[in-house]
Design a protein that fits this description.
eight-stranded antiparallel beta barrel; Alpha-Beta Plaits; globular; 240 residues; 32% strand; 8 strands
C-alpha cells in the first residue's frame, strides 16, 4: 500500500519560481531514498471558509499563496527509513540554503492510501482535508469509492483518499487544528486530479446538479463537511 506525506504551507506569491526551484532541488533527496513522486500544488482557487480554510490553517498573509503538496512512497517502511537517513545526512551542500517560505507554518503528516492512484499526473487538482470519525474507516472507504466513481464518470483522472496515520501536533499549527479535529476523529487527505482547470470547472458544474452527489455524500458516514478545507491548485512541480 502506498504511503503519502502530505503538506500544507504558504509561500510569498512573488517567490513562486524560487519555491519551484527549491522543491526541485529537494526531489533528488527523496527519490534517492525510495520516494515515487513529489507534487507541489500552487493555490489558484482557495476560498476562505466560514469556519476554517486552507488559508487559515497555514496562517496565510495577504502577500502569500497557499500550497497543497505531497510525496508518495511505496510503503510506510520506506518512508520511515527515508526520513531517518535524510535527517541524519542533512541537506546537500549548497542546496536549499534559503527556504523561500516560512517553514515554521508548514503543516505535515503521514497518510495511508485508502483508494486511488497517487501517481497519476494531472494538470489541475482539487485538494481537501477533512475530519472523519475514527471508527468509520471501512465505511468511509466504501462511501469514497462510490463518490470517486462519480467523479471519474465526470472526467476526473484520479481520486485519492488517504487516512491519517502519523500526524504530529505542531507548535504553531497542524492538521488537527486545520480541521478542528475532535478526540474521536481521524484526518483524511484527498485530491481529485483533472486534465486542466477548464475540465474541472465544467465537471463541477454538472456534479452540483447530479442528484447522486447527495446520495453518495460522505456525510452519511459521519464526515463533517462543514469543517472540510479545500481548494484548487496548479501543479508547479510534478516529478518522479
Amino acid at each position: 500500500m502506498t504511503y503519502i506525506d502530505g503538506f500544507l504551507l504558504a509561500a510569498p506569491s512573488a517567490n513562486r519560481e524560487a519555491y519551484r526551484r527549491h522543491a526541485e532541488e529537494a526531489w533528488p533527496m527523496f527519490r534517492g531514498r525510495g520516494a515515487l513522486t513529489m507534487v507541489e500544488g500552487w493555490g489558484d482557487d482557495v476560498p476562505d471558509g466560514k469556519v476554517n480554510s486552507i488559508n487559515s490553517a497555514v496562517m496565510r498573509k495577504a502577500d502569500e499563496t497557499a500550497l497543497f503538496s505531497w510525496v508518495t512512497w511505496p510503503d510506510k517502511a520506506t518512508r520511515m527509513a527515508g526520513w531517518q537517513t535524510m535527517m541524519e545526512a542533512g541537506p546537500p551542500e549548497g542546496a536549499m540554503s534559503e527556504m523561500p517560505f516560512d517553514g515554521s507554518r508548514m503543516i505535515y503528516g503521514g497518510f495511508e492510501t485508502l483508494l486511488g492512484d497517487p501517481g497519476v499526473k494531472a494538470g489541475y487538482f482539487d485538494g481537501t482535508v477533512m475530519p472523519v470519525p475514527a471508527g468509520k474507516r471501512a465505511a468511509f472507504t466504501e462511501a469514497s469509492k462510490r463518490m470517486a466513481e462519480l467523479f471519474i464518470e465526470h472526467g476526473a483522472l484520479t481520486v485519492v483518499d488517504a487516512w491519517g496515520d502519523d500526524v504530529p501536533e505542531g507548535k504553531i499549527n497542524d492538521f488537527h487544528g486545520a480541521v478542528l479535529r475532535k478526540p474521536d476523529e481521524a484526518i483524511v487527505l484527498s485530491w481529485i486530479g483533472w486534465k486542466d482547470k477548464a475540465a474541472r470547472d465544467a465537471a463541477w458544474e454538472k456534479l452540483m446538479r447530479d442528484p447522486r452527489m447527495d446520495q453518495h455524500s460522505l456525510k452519511s458516514v459521519g464526515a463533517d463537511m462543514g469543517r472540510m478545507i479545500f481548494g484548487g491548485f496548479i501543479p508547479i512541480v510534478d516529478v518522479r
